[in-house]
Every structure is written in structure tokens, then in C-alpha cells.
Write a structure and sequence with these properties.
The complex is a heterodimer of chains A (about 425) and B (about 250). By secondary structure, chain A is α/β, with parallel strands linked by helices. Chain A has helices at about 25-35, 50-55, 125, 135-145, 375-380, 385-400, 410-425; strands at about 80-85, 85-90, 95-100, 100-105, 150, 160-165, 170-180, 185-190, 200-205, 210-220, 225-235, 240-250, 250-260, 265-275, 285-295, 300-310, 315-325, 330-340, 345-355, 360-370. Chain B has helices spanning about 40-50, 75-80, 95-110, 120-130, 135-140, 150-165, 180-195, 205-210, 235-240, 245-250; strands spanning about 1-10, 15-25, 30-35, 55-65, 65-70, 80-85, 90-95, 145, 170, 200-205, 215-220, 225-230. Classes of the chains: A alpha/beta (about 425), B alpha/beta (about 250).
């Protein structure tokens, strides 16, 4: 048993004594973590987000509130996997069997000598540590208590839905999922729920040639919670990766995605919608940190992130497109926009392009502004009351990102949630 | 219908006085035109009446059927039956034209204590009205005014007017940016809405629009006031002689 040595002796993670097939990966991760150290404010990629709540030994206390609301994906035909405060709940979960995919729990197979996930667990996470280190993901590899291992061997007929319930104000959850898509396979993964007072997750996704990975996630609606999520993806030839996240509320949320395009003619789309109100409880801070590497020919990547912020809420976007010298014909697009509903809110953006190939199309844009007065007057002059007109324009602003969700029914579900968020805040 | 008395307004920013005592009475069912040189305050009058921010009314009143509209929010004026067809209709990316129209119609109905229009009824009505204005399904689906040509934007204004059925319509240079055919189409749209209970205030630079939308009364505006009022022949006089004579007469 070893402990990560930290300057301030904060978050201390330990690898389990008997980890079976994952033990080696966990021990290696601990070595890496000790070398890298936990993030601090001086780190370039933590300039806009204070890591303290995520790196301190104890999870900051939560404040669970019960909402009378149907969970977001309830109407979707899906296979449910429920975690309560980061602990798997068999009673609330469906039977873990579905055609086209083998579903196992990380904790359930920990003692096996060998497992298909051995070549992936902590491997994609480790690959994602250069050029920017992500120690909180490494800590997760060391100490994750559970997670889901999905071995996708066909076209999976319905979404696998991970539901993270949050009950205890002292919960501190660490889950690590591994998803392996064989060639020509397809899966949709849904995630929703606030998870825990503090939540650290890693999802490693290996997308085989011509396979399609779809991911939709909502993070809400509890206010007092802290989360850091990581997604590490490696994409094979002619594969597709689509991920969408909607976040409402949350003291601190940092969503990191590290996507490596390894095969030719591949597509990677990642999008996010954020609605944050700083006036509630302990404020609102949301950070999207995205790193897409093109290392193959004719890849298309797209990052679309929109944040609406009010009452001193803070939104952060750090997005990078790295195009390696051999990644010709890359088409990279990135847009990040903040809509500030008052003078107290902040949107901090750091778009980065690093291009070594000479035959590429890459564009990026970042804007930050208020509601357009001309549009607002136009709507009001047609009889739409001020509050409704504002909401309409906020939704219009978010629409480009919501449109990244291909499934119309889910798009509507998400829009309804945003409408409710807005309606709750009407003066 | 509309009664404007001694209306004075200035820019909030720098206190520049734009309207300096406008008097105008518009009876129900009538079409009045306002002509005047650039900078005379025509567009400002339309903005002040419709409630756009940035102007301060320092004196005078404006009543719509006896109700003082200057005390109302823009949306209340709309619900009271006032409609401004914009000189430059605003593009709203992300808001579908249909959603926009339905929200507007139902907001006004709600404000007046009427039942909201069902989606099916609304669709039927909007399709019929759009057809007469040669607005196709695609234009209804697209975001409000985004990528519309000048003519399409103005037709879309008239469609909104037709859907909202206001009693007092102000047309602010609706002819600007229109070719001859588009002007005809727009004018036909307006004429179709002429009704005993509905009045129009048509602001224009050119007599040509008034060939299509025939006014009952023509006002000449200059330096923030109505300086002359007459019949349709006044518009012809302006067309032939310009404003110089009228201005000289006024001075």
C-alpha cells in the first residue's frame, strides 16, 4: 500500500491490496501520480479553475436536496446501471446483459487474473498525460472503487444508461469505466445524475475501425457538489465519436476530454451546454477542457460549447486542436461562446490550435456577450413579454450546441430541462 | 384610434432633441402617410410609439383608443394592438420563424385574456396567410429573418402583421430595399389587411409606395414636427418638387 506524496498532503490515494488484473496498472499509475503531483493553481491548465476542492483530502460537504422531477432519460428505452454515491446498486439496476455487449463491473472482476480490459485500463489515461498532465485522472486509475467495463461486439440495440444518484453529503466517489468497441460496432452510452458530493470519473473509450460511439450526459441538478470527469478516447479508421454534455448547477464541474484520432477518415464531435447560476448556495463554476489530437489523414473534429451564465457564475473553456504533421486534410472546428446575463458573471476561454500539417482546414471562434438588445426589442414589439423573450434568446443561443445531439427525442428532452431551468429563474 | 399630442422626445444618451411637438390624429380605418426629409424624426416617431429603449419622452402624450401607450412596455403596446413593421427587421439566429410567430400570437392572446391558439389551428392559419405573401414552408422553418433577402424580410413583417391582426399598424419605410415586384406584393399584403377597424401610419420617402397603398391623409414631417397635412396630392407635390418649397414655406 502506498500513498501519493503531496506537498500539502492532501488527496491521498491508495491502490487496492489485491487488484487482480488491474493491480499493475494501478501501481504504475501511482508511480506516475507521485511523479506528476496533484494539480495546483500554478499549473497552466488550472489557471481558471481552483483545483483545491478536488485535491483536498476530504470531499467538501454536499447539501443534498430532493427534487420532485423525473430523471432526464427516464422515457428512453435503455439498460439502467445505477450507482448511489458511487456504489453500485443492484436492486435499482437492470440485469447487466444486453445483446452486442458484455457488461461487467470493475469491482466484480477485480480478482480475475486476466481480463480483456487489461490492455486498456489506465492505458488510454496514461496516453492522455502528454503533453498536458491530468493527475486527477491518474489518481482515479489508482484508486477507482468501481466502474463499468463494456466490451462491445455488435450493434447494441439500446443505450446503456449510467445513473448516478447522490444521497450522502459526505460521499466521495471514484468510478472508472472502460469501453471497447470492436470493428463495425455501435453503442450509445447515457450518463446522468449528480453522483456524489465529490465525484471523480474516468471513461476510457477505444473505438475500433468503423465503429460508432455515442455519448450523452447530463450533470444536474444538485447545487452543492464538486466533480471532475475525464474521457479518454482513441479512434480507429472511419470510426465516429460523438459526445454531448449538458450541465446545470454544481459548485464546481470540470469536464476533461482527451481524444486521439488514430485512424484515417474519422469523425470526432464533442459538444456541451451549460446553464449556471452563481447566486445559488455555493456558486457555480464550470470548466470544459478539451484536447483533440489529429494523427491521421482526413479527420473531422468539432467542438461546440455554449454557456449561459448569471449571478456571478463562471464558465471556462480550454480547447485545443493539435494537428500532427502527417494528419493532412484535417477539418477541425471549434467554437466556444459565453452568454452573460449580467455584469457579475465570467466566461474565460482559451482556444488553442497547434498545426503541423500544411493541408488542413481549421477554424475556431470564441465570443462572450450579452443578450442582443435589438432582438429583444423585436420580440417584445411583437408582444412577447420580457422574461419570455429573454428565455427564447437564451435557448436560441444554446441551440447550436444542442443541435449536436442527433437524436431528436433526446434533444427535446434536454431543451425541456433548459426551459425549466430558465423558468425557475424568472423574476 | 391614435392620438398624438405635442410629443417631444430626445435621445437618452446625449439629450439630442428629435421630436419637437408632434401632433397627429389618426381615425379608425384610415391610412395616413408621413413623408419627410432624412433626419426629420419619422423613424424616431415609430420607435417612440412602439417603445424602443434609448428615447426619453419629455412632453406630450400618445393614446391608442384612449389608453396612454407611452406608459406601457413594448409588449403591452403590442397586446393593445400596436404593430411596427421594422425598416430593418432583426435577424434572430436559433429561433425558428414559426416558433417566433406562435409565441407572439399566443403571448398577445394571453395578455388580452384570450385562449391560446392550438398548434394545429395556428399552422392552418399561418400556412394560408404565408401563401398569399408567397412565403414558402422553408422560410417559415428557418430562423427569424436569417439569410432572408430584403424582400423576404419585409414580406415576413407583413406576415407577422397578418397573424397578429393589430388595430394600429406603423410601417417604417417598408418600401426600402424592395424592387418593384416585391413592393407590389408587400402592398397587396397591406391592402388585404385594410379594414374599418384598422389604421395605418405609413412612413416613407417616396410617393411610389403610396401608389400601391393609397393614403387618406399625407403629413409632411420636418425638424421633429408635422409641418403640413393634406390629401394624397401632397405626396405628388413632394415627388415633383422635393421638400425645399415646403420647408421654405414652414420657415
Amino acid at each position: 500500500m502506498a500513498v501519493a506524496e503531496q506537498k500539502n498532503a492532501q488527496l491521498a490515494v491508495t491502490a487496492p491490496v489485491s487488484g487482480g488484473w488491474s493491480l499493475k496498472a494501478r501501481e504504475d499509475a501511482l508511480t506516475r501520480l507521485n511523479a506528476a503531483g496533484l494539480p495546483g493553481r500554478r499549473d497552466e491548465y488550472w489557471k481558471y479553475t481552483r483545483p483545491d476542492a478536488l485535491t483536498q483530502a476530504q470531499a467538501p460537504e454536499g447539501k443534498f436536496v430532493s427534487y420532485e422531477e423525473t430523471p432526464v432519460f427516464s422515457e428512453v428505452d435503455r439498460l439502467k446501471i445505477v450507482f448511489v454515491d458511487g456504489v453500485f446498486d443492484a436492486d435499482q439496476s437492470d440485469d447487466l446483459s444486453l445483446e452486442g455487449v458484455t457488461i461487467e463491473r470493475l469491482a466484480g472482476v477485480a480478482d480475475k487474473d486476466i481480463h480483456w480490459a487489461q490492455g486498456l485500463y489506465g492505458v488510454l489515461e496514461a496516453n492522455g498525460q502528454t503533453p498536458v498532465s491530468r493527475p486527477l485522472a491518474t489518481a482515479n486509475t489508482v484508486a477507482a472503487t468501481d466502474g463499468i467495463l463494456l466490451n462491445v461486439t455488435g450493434k447494441v440495440s439500446k443505450p446503456v444508461s449510467m445513473i448516478y444518484l447522490y444521497e450522502s453529503n459526505n460521499s466521495d466517489a471514484m468510478l472508472h469505466h472502460v469501453v471497447k468497441l470492436a470493428e463495425d460496432t455501435e453503442i450509445t452510452i447515457l450518463e446522468n445524475g449528480p453522483a456524489a458530493a465529490r465525484f471523480n470519473t474516468v471513461m476510457e473509450v477505444d473505438v475500433g475501425d468503423r465503429a460508432s460511439f455515442h455519448h450523452m450526459r447530463t450533470q444536474g441538478r444538485q447545487h452543492v457538489r464538486h466533480a471532475v470527469t475525464h474521457m479518454f478516447a482513441r479512434l480507429g479508421e472511419e470510426s465516429q465519436f460523438r459526445s454531448f454534455t449538458m450541465t446545470v448547477n454544481g459548485t464546481l464541474t470540470r469536464n476533461e476530454a482527451v481524444i486521439e484520432i488514430n485512424g484515417d477518415n474519422t469523425l470526432a464531435h464533442i459538444a456541451g451546454v451549460v446553464a449556471g447560476d452563481g447566486a445559488t448556495d455555493q456558486g457555480f463554476h464550470h470548466d470544459d477542457t478539451i484536447f483533440i489530437t489529429h494523427d491521421a489523414v482526413n479527420g473531422e473534429s468539432r467542438q461546440v460549447f455554449k454557456k449561459v451564465l448569471r449571478n456571478g457564475a463562471t464558465g471556462v473553456f480550454q480547447g485545443k486542436i493539435l494537428v500532427k504533421a502527417d494528419a493532412q486534410k484535417t477539418d477541425g472546428y471549434q467554437i466556444s461562446q459565453g452568454l452573460l446575463l449580467d455584469d457579475d458573471s465570467n466566461f474565460l476561454a482559451k482556444p488553442e490550435l497547434e498545426i503541423y500539417a500544411d493541408d488542413v482546414i481549421c477554424s475556431h471562434g470564441s465570443t462572450c456577450g450579452a443578450i442582443d438588445d435589438a432582438a429583444l426589442f423585436y420580440l417584445r414589439s411583437r408582444g412577447v413579454p420580457l422574461a419570455e423573450a429573454q428565455d427564447l434568446l437564451v435557448l436560441a443561443f444554446l441551440a447550436e450546441a444542442i443541435d449536436e445531439v442527433a437524436d431528436e427525442a433526446i434533444r427535446d428532452l434536454l431543451t425541456v430541462r433548459l426551459e425549466s431551468w430558465l423558468a425557475r429563474r424568472r423574476a | 384610434m391614435l392620438e398624438i399630442k405635442n410629443l417631444h422626445a430626445e435621445l437618452e444618451d446625449d439629450g439630442k432633441k428629435i421630436l419637437k411637438g408632434v401632433d397627429l390624429t389618426l381615425e379608425a380605418g384610415k391610412v395616413h402617410a408621413i413623408m419627410g426629409p432624412n433626419g426629420s424624426g419619422k423613424s424616431t416617431l415609430s420607435y417612440v410609439l412602439s417603445g424602443r429603449a434609448g428615447y426619453e419622452v419629455t412632453e406630450g402624450t400618445a393614446q391608442l383608443d384612449g389608453a396612454d401607450i407611452l406608459d406601457m412596455e413594448a409588449e403591452e403596446r403590442a397586446a393593445a394592438g400596436l404593430f411596427l413593421a421594422f425598416q430593418y427587421p432583426v435577424e434572430i439566429p436559433g429561433v425558428g420563424n414559426m416558433t417566433f410567430l406562435r409565441t407572439a400570437v399566443n403571448s398577445q392572446r394571453k395578455a388580452r385574456g384570450e385562449d391560446e391558439m392550438s398548434a394545429a389551428d395556428f399552422l392552418k392559419v399561418v400556412r394560408a396567410k404565408a401563401k398569399t405573401l408567397k412565403i414558402d414552408a422553408d422560410m417559415l422553418k428557418r430562423p427569424v429573418n436569417v439569410g432572408f433577402s430584403g424582400g423576404e424580410k419585409k414580406r415576413n413583417e407583413i406576415l407577422q402583421m397578418a397573424m397578429l391582426e393589430p388595430k394600429m399598424c406603423i410601417l417604417d419605410e417598408t418600401d426600402s430595399g424592395l424592387d418593384v415586384d416585391a413592393m407590389k406584393l408587400v402592398s397587396e399584403g397591406v391592402n388585404a389587411l385594410r379594414d374599418e377597424g384598422r389604421s395605418f401610419l405609413v412612413i416613407t420617402h417616396y410617393q411610389r409606395l403610396l401608389d400601391h397603398i393609397k393614403p387618406d391623409v399625407v403629413h409632411i414631417m420636418a425638424e421633429g414636427r408635422i409641418i403640413k397635412t393634406g390629401g394624397p396630392e401632397l405626396a405628388l407635390e413632394v415627388e415633383n418638387n422635393g421638400y425645399a418649397d415646403l420647408l421654405a414655406e414652414y420657415a
